[in-house]
Amino acid sequence: VQLQASGGGLVQAGGSLRLSCAASGRTFNDYAMGWFRQVSGKEREFVAAISWSGGVIYYANSVKGRFTISRDNAKNTVYLQMNSLEPEDTAVYYCAARIYSSVTTQATTYDYWGQGTQVTVSS
Q1: Nearest to 88 by CA among 18, 33, 30, 13
Q2: Contact status, residue 120 vs residue 10, Cβ threshold 8 Å
Q3: 4: which strand partners?
Q4: Could you read off the pLDDT of 64-75 as tens digits, one per residue?
Q5: Could you give the CA distance from residue 73 to residue 41 in angstroms, rounded to a whole number?
Q6: pLDDT at 112 over 80
Q7: CA neighbor of 35 nearest in space, from 6, 15, 13
Q8: In whole angstroms, what is the distance from residue 109 CA to residue 58 CA?
Q9: CB of 39 within 8 A of CB of 91?
Q10: Which of 32, 50, 73, 111 is the most buried (most CB within 10 A)?
């Protein structure tokens, strides 16, 4: 499975970005998908996750109400819509896939990772 994340960039506080993660190499609806983020020197942090059907979704408390995860299985793509961005959201964002399994919030349970996309929110 190959994952390609895109959509990061520089935005002012209060602004919005939409991240995309395109998957290839396997039937997309075989796996749950997650978004994580990492600041240099800190551990990777869970952001959001979605089951293969989209029927189960989890969010970190810090992004609940501001971020929305979704997926389009026909396009082999998962999205993260980020609104009301805050400087504290600045990080490298990674998408991840978990094969044949239920969705979880733990990074160690994911099987494949994308390369990351930088999100920078200025105050």
Answers
A1: 13
A2: yes
A3: 22
A4: 999 999 999 999
A5: 34
A6: yes
A7: 6
A8: 15
A9: yes
A10: 32
